[in-house]
Amino acid sequence: MEPSHSDVHGDCRAISDVLARIGDKWTVMVVGLLSDGPMRFNELRRTIGGISQRMLTLTLRGLERDGLVTRTVFPTIPPRVDYELTDLGQTLIVPLKSLFAWATSNRPMIAAAQQAFDAATPNTPVPHPPRQVPNLQAARLPKMAQAFDDAPGGRNGR
Amino acid sequence: MEPSHSDVHGDCRAISDVLARIGDKWTVMVVGLLSDGPMRFNELRRTIGGISQRMLTLTLRGLERDGLVTRTVFPTIPPRVDYELTDLGQTLIVPLKSLFAWATSNRPMIAAAQQAFDAATPNTPVPHPPRQVPNLQAARLPKMAQAFDDAPGGRNGR
DNA sequence: CTGTATCCGAGCCGATACTG
DNA sequence: CAGTATCGGCTCGGATACAG
């Protein structure tokens, strides 16, 4: 018998579990940044720009719990803590790239569909309004680009 | 030529936008079910099993707004409404498969990491407790399997 | 610098009741 | 059958203050 259909039960939970982790507001961005190499707490904080230290701590703690990042403390003064992707964390970048490619290449189409839909039903309030993620400051971030760019099926020459 | 580094600003927003849509509790499951072909409202509702009609409506409305599914009304009595993935919606399955493959093949490792972490810090409450998605009933759902199975890197034989 | 603790608003999501 | 409306709990996530 083919390998398919084997454990649908557990399988559909699997993807939900993953989305419960990376589906939140900040996780993918952190992973993307970290994919370029280890970073310190405030380095992440500054680069992202719109995250509170509370959420950064929580996000990192969650990733650490799942074995996706390591937390290394240097007992110096002032203290220094490095966060780095584990091997497992690195592998996550692959499917993330796939998603990233889809997102970038289809965003215009989605935006158009939304406008068309909203125009057709002006009275109905939008299902779920945005969750705006503040843009990173353009300055210090070829990092994020390397992280997800060069994905398959993503973009042609531009 | 590498097209990289071109529009980092817009790009990191792109992936966040996508996650804002598919990162919620039900969307991927609906897309997975729909990937096998059109389905009616209550058919989806029954198959998923744990979703309220409110959330199913909202989820479908959101997908429709983004141009990922179409809603077709048959003005019969009783009324009948079919939901179906658009071409754009179909393309989403590709990156979803990628994620699905990663999820299934790494879930044991993640679970282990969590246990280890929780064992090491018994007092600290978990960052974000679960978001349990009720399992689909095993009965009528080879559908979901076809949707995401045969993904690359996912599973070898067996 | 790297966190933790607390307060608080906003939204998600389920339960229930009602309509065409 | 396929929704809409309304209520209420709960969680997410920002702001602020404090600690090692």
From TrEMBL, chains A, B:
Pfam families from the UniProt entry: HxlR
Organism: Inquilinus ginsengisoli
Gene3D superfamilies documented for this protein: Winged helix-like DNA-binding domain superfamily/Winged helix DNA-binding domain
UniProt entry tagged with the keyword Transport: no
Residue span, HTH hxlR-type domain: 12-111
Keywords: DNA-binding, Transcription, Transcription regulation
This protein's name: DNA-binding HxlR family transcriptional regulator
Transcription regulation among keywords: yes
GO molecular-function terms, A-Z: DNA binding
SUPFAM superfamilies: Winged helix' DNA-binding domain (SSF46785)
